[in-house]
Amino acid sequence: MVSALLIGLSFLTLLVQEPRAQGELQYAELGQCLLESGEVLENCRVAYRIFGELSSDSSNAVLFPTQFMGTSATVAPYIGADGLVDDAEHFVIAVDAFGNGVSSSPSNSSTQPGDSFPRLTIRDMVASQYRLVTEVLGLSSLRGVMGISMGGMQAFEWAVSHPGFAEKIVAIASSPRLASYDIVLWETVLRILSAYQECECQEAVSALMGIAFLTGSSPDYHARLTPRDSLPGIIGRMDSQMFAVPIAQNLAVQVRAMIGHNVAAPYDDSLEQAAARVKAKVLVIVTPEDHVVTPAPALEFAEVLGAEAIQLPNDCGHNGLRCDSEMLSQATQGFLADELGRKM
Amino acid sequence: MVSALLIGLSFLTLLVQEPRAQGELQYAELGQCLLESGEVLENCRVAYRIFGELSSDSSNAVLFPTQFMGTSATVAPYIGADGLVDDAEHFVIAVDAFGNGVSSSPSNSSTQPGDSFPRLTIRDMVASQYRLVTEVLGLSSLRGVMGISMGGMQAFEWAVSHPGFAEKIVAIASSPRLASYDIVLWETVLRILSAYQECECQEAVSALMGIAFLTGSSPDYHARLTPRDSLPGIIGRMDSQMFAVPIAQNLAVQVRAMIGHNVAAPYDDSLEQAAARVKAKVLVIVTPEDHVVTPAPALEFAEVLGAEAIQLPNDCGHNGLRCDSEMLSQATQGFLADELGRKM
Q1: C-alpha distances in angstroms, A3 versus A6, A16, A23, B151?
Q2: Are B149 and B68 in contact (CB under 8 A)?
Q3: Considering CB atoms only, which of A191, A192, A231 is closest to B183?
Q4: Candidates B177, B191, B226, partner chain A, best to mutate (most A CBs within 10 A)
Q5: Which of B181, B187, B215 is closest, CB to CB, to A226?
Q6: Do B223 and A291 touch (CB under 8 A)?
């Protein structure tokens, strides 16, 4: 009786269709997602949060995919009047990338859990987002796709795999395909994640935290701003983080997607051929001392595209977007607000 | 009968005292080495190799301690007419640092093997070398002490703990005490070594190789000179290295010594007070983009000392001494040959 009542109430809720609160977590159930590898992601679920209102002509939607380890909740602080995109003007869809523990991931899949979760690509993430945007949200175009780091990799991929769908692409601290240094970094992370699955020991997680510290900002930055007496706190934080094996499996899914990321892969590995497909206006923003996603491939792609490239004038590195947050905010908001038809 | 004969022959060999071949591995058996911690290193053994001839006034001896993971054999290529010190002019003592698997180490100690090997410091390495030089080789002064990386740390420590003993100190790609970035690097390595002891898995060793690649040269260097198509070879080499647990324990001994290294520790942590003790003429050589031993502390110490500091004009990083090998060779050989009495 009680369960029947609950089902009845739940049905009633569906009928009433109360408006969603701003930024509330929602799920698109996509059934099966066919992956680039030919494998199928079962019970394919894409989580997202909406900020702002869709304009009457549906022309103000901006998709904001998540960075590595990020969720649509961690994207939220970038949205607003002082952020990268203002939800007073835009209908912002913050979307959880596969493997982040909210959208389909090794940690939450009932049919393909853990190591049985299929390998997938940045292109697969983008394909699922295309279905979210078109099938679930009913949009036939986007004002923009923007992202930071792995989020920017998805933005670059949107530009190439769905030319003409988004008018503008913003890729921050990101890459159209990773440089050799970046790939060795992620291969190293992958091996520590694998060692962690064998030892389930604190040391492996501490090592990952150490690598995040070492690469997140440049050595020059640390030489200036990280005194030796701050070390006990830093080492203490390295050694106090911990996560369970399914989280390591989630991280590995995203790391492998980044290692394989290459917008040019379907086009003879040619950035020129990939660029020739792009119809969007593209803004590339990098920091010169980024030691996680090194800037050379993004700058090369910007040059091939004839796109605007901004090099933030700091040595804070990958974690240092806040070092020039005002400049960054003005650049992205100005770019999104800019009139169309000025593709260079 | 046979064994008595062998003992007799061996005794005969000792009596004959054949001259040692150039660069032959020799051992100084120092009995007990009292360590800075108060612990005792039993069966304390320091290995070394001699290159060149001692001058009649014993004024041309140069001590060359080993770098991290290095041995007196790996120092040998730096000795010669085109090297850092010419054995046609100098009596070069290449000395194996504790923990390198040749001098006393967790891997070769019969009484304190593995994790029972005592923790020791760069100062302990230097104290053992002082005994080698004075007690075993009978020298009362040195023309110089020179070293690369951890070898240079020992050279810096020689300058402070034994002022006046060596006339000249050359520290290349090294540090009087590590910057915070460097310490986090070695703490990270230490945790991977520890995880390796738990899992004994290839992945942990591969991760160490990955970190060596990522930090050995700068990201800018890799962006220029490491194309994406070289990745299969790089990853293949990462995954084909392996070592046994006792080697991991050796490495940890040296890593801990570097983490604790601080020439100023006995002097209120003051580089100025440490510098005030130094009587040698000091030459500091760094590369600006060294991401293993970052150059700021060495440059600071050179400034306090009023010593000459050379910044090699390349971005090859810690592994890039060969990028300016001719300049390096001229600088060190010129410095060692230079007349005395010109301390700045």
Answers
A1: 5, 20, 29, 73
A2: yes
A3: A231
A4: B191
A5: B181
A6: no
Q: What is the DSSP letter of A265?
A: G
Contact B234 A191 (CB under 8 A): no
Calculate how close chain B gets to A41, using CA atoms only, in Å.
28
Query: What's the token pair of residue A332?
Result: 């992205």
CB contact under 8 A, B192 and A199: no
For every residue of B63-106, DSSP letters joined together read: EEE--TT--HHHHGGGBSTTSSB-TTT-EEEEEPPTTSSSSS-T
β-partners of residue B50 are: B93
Minimum CA–CA partner of B234 in chain A: A184
> For residues B94 and A111, what is the distance between their CA atoms, to the nearest angstrom?
62
CB B67 within 8 Å of CB B153: no
Nearest residue in B to A198, CA atom:
B199
Amino acid sitting at position B187:
E
The CA distances from residue B256 to A22, A272, B57, B102, in Å, are: 52, 49, 39, 18
Q: How far is CA A4 from the centre of its chain?
A: 40
Task: Please state the ipTM of this predicted complex.
Answer: 0.91
Question: A5 burial class (0-12, 13-18, 19+ CB within 10 angstroms)?
Answer: exposed
What is the nearest CA distance from B160 to chain A, expressed in angstroms? Answer: 21
CB nearest B207 (choices: A181, A195, A296): A195
Please indicate whether, in this complex, the C-beta atoms of B192 and A185 are within 8 angstroms of each other.
Answer: no
| CA distance between the termini of chain A | 65
Q: What is the pLDDT along chain A (344 residues), one digit of tens a residue?
A: 334 333 333 443 344 445 678 899 999 999 999 999 999 999 999 999 999 999 999 999 999 999 999 999 999 999 999 999 999 999 999 999 999 999 999 999 999 999 999 999 999 999 999 999 999 999 999 999 999 999 999 999 999 999 999 999 999 999 999 999 999 999 999 999 999 999 999 999 999 999 999 999 999 999 999 999 999 999 999 999 999 999 999 999 999 999 999 999 999 999 999 999 999 999 999 999 999 999 999 999 999 999 999 999 888 999 878 899 999 999 999 999 985 434 43
Residue A71 Cα, gap to closest chain B Cα (Å) = 27
Question: Could B294 and A223 be called an inter-chain contact, meaning their C-beta atoms sit closer than 8 Å?
Answer: yes
| Close Cβ partners of A47 (under 8 Å, ≥ 6 residues apart) | A25, A26, A27, A28, A71, A72, A95, A96, A102, A103
Helix spans in B239-324 (H)? 245-260, 271-277, 296-305
